[in-house]
């Protein structure tokens, strides 16, 4: 048993973790481990949006993006997913990860101009970037051998960690929680730059990407996931998308992962922006929609036990104000962090 | 909005509460307020046990107890409940409350001799007493105007309190949590004193009494409680009774309250002894049996909203080693805290 907090980020606590030192989680979980030399990671969400049939510019934009990724300084890993949003638009979101912020910065300046710097007919584009110090970030995996998201660029996986399977584990896995309550500071603001809209959020904005992979499940387990768990998960994701703002969820996307060959996969993830880690904690712990998700997952896992083939993971970041970048071009007003600000000109 | 921790027990924190200062609970709850002069309360569980038809000595014992209660120094309030235990015995438990430990001590010495100091044919008796400083104790009520248990002897009820409706609220309501993790110290030990068996437990043993009152419910709400909530609650109570030891629950009783006139009431409560507050927290937050209880209760309350007539309350104490007393006479080996120790002589 090891701590989710890597040794080199352990510090003298001014805040206690939520469980006693002899706490034993009831089942194993693992976290991504970066090389100690990695002090920041970058996660960049490149979104593309259109209504109805895909305009020619949409496919071209994705090709252009792939070209940028393949160029000098491109990401160590990227994946792609799609979803239909609440305004009826199709969205394709490509998430790219770096473990070297200098490399990212050099790459990003021209890439940003190519992505949100030119209008494409019938296509909206956006980019949402966090570049947290690793002390503001945590991951959690239900099993080894298949990293997802930011964990793909990590050095490897931990052994079994202690800080999971209790409410508050998410916070306790973030190294900064040893000394900082990570309270939010301020409100999101809109910045107009011609047709480009930027959102300046605030200190301690929180991002979660929380995924599931049912590609290894068979027969009865697959049926149990698709019939009993997925619909409850979808209902919770829809709630956050449509009614999340009142409880501190600025935006939520429930994404279907697209395989490398462009086909549909048996993986999905929810990705959401939150006013604070505390707001995310409150929803997860006590909102009826997540209590139902948790109940369905508990029933599923207690029915199947260690034989369950469903894979679950998440990554959570609480970003400082200067670790964030949000830019939208030609997107509808409920896209991503635009939903958190008033974009209509009086 | 006020803190559950009374002003005169507020102290400089070395430990943080689990929610930010601007946390707003989603529905109102209240706590019992004692007069500031009250520095300890006493809760004494007087149990009586028999198998099959009630022996003549059982009714006589209850009459004797009522006589003791009515005498000089008797409790400010008492109530009575019954349950059939896992060994097939009927148990009648009378809980009595004092807010003056000196008065209790004077009263208890002869009362104890009368209760667990003489053998009654076919009848076991036990007494389980906590006498915590109020800083080691908390209560919670879903509504005003009908105090239960220890709250009956309080000065009154608070206004709406902040520290509830999140996991960790129970701990945050206990004033000692401001500075103390309340970790358990040691293991329960059996002390033989002739036929009397005493259990010396350990520092920071935890007691919860958690009750429900459906007497005001009507028609569809009553049906919802009895059909959808109560069976799930009973399943969780049975789990704690039969399999609780492995997760730190020494004993659990799911009691039916007996009205003052001796008839059945529409009130029940679970009462359990725990190795630590942390063990109780872990069960409540993540064990499938309580997750189902919580899910059923959430569904019930979100269906009914503020019109719900079901009343819920609890009281929780984390007792210091010298605030406890457990004594059993002629009881079976799984009675109360006896279940936590080996009583068979080699």
From TrEMBL, chains A, B:
Kindly list the GO molecular function terms attached to this UniProt entry.
Answer: lyase activity; metal ion binding
Out of the domains of life, which is the source? Bacteria
Statement: the UniProt record of this protein carries the keyword Nucleotide-binding: no
Q: Which Pfam families match?
A: Dehydratase_hem
Q: Provide the alphabetized UniProt keywords.
A: Heme, Iron, Lyase, Metal-binding
| Cofactor (UniProt) | heme b
Q: Does the keyword Nucleotide-binding apply?
A: no
Quote the InterPro entries the UniProt record gives.
OXD
What family name appears in the similarity comment? Belongs to the heme-containing dehydratase family.
Q: What is the protein's given name?
A: Aldoxime dehydratase
Q: Give the species this sequence originates from.
A: Bradyrhizobium stylosanthis
